[in-house]
Specification:
Keywords: Signal. The protein has 108 residues and is an alpha+beta fold. The chain has one helix spanning 2-29, and strands at 43-49, 52-58, 68-73, 77-82, 88-92, 96-102.
Length: 108
């Protein structure tokens, strides 16, 4: 009886300790708002306009090289690295002027 009770206590403690970790992972994977269409690994152009940043993503099969790559996307920030890989920049949402998704030219 003591073994079952001990096992139940250990299982309960493990569940209580792991629940916040699972909730945090789910929250990170569900980004909404301005950054909802951005993904890690996506190429983009970062342009400084005054004290704000203009982030431009070219969707589709564009062969145009982009100077930055997204490393991480949070609900209120995005982390980008430049094409050299030497600089990583964390851009808070308060410093973003706009996120532009260029769909490409319609050549029909």
């Amino acid at each position: 009886m003591q073994v079952r009770c001990g096992f139940a206590v250990v299982a309960l403690l493990a569940a209580l300790l792991l629940t916040p970790l699972f909730a945090q992972q789910q929250a990170q994977s569900k980004v909404s708002g301005v950054f909802s269409n951005l993904k890690a690994g996506q190429a983009l152009n970062v342009k400084e306009t005054g004290e704000r940043y203009l982030l431009t993503v070219i969707d589709g099969d564009s062969k145009l090289p982009q100077p930055h790559t997204i490393l991480e996307v949070g609900s209120d920030f995005v982390v980008v690295k430049d094409f050299t890989g030497l600089n990583e920049t964390r851009i808070p949402i308060t410093s973003v002027k706009a996120v532009v998704h260029f769909k490409g030219f319609d050549r029909k």
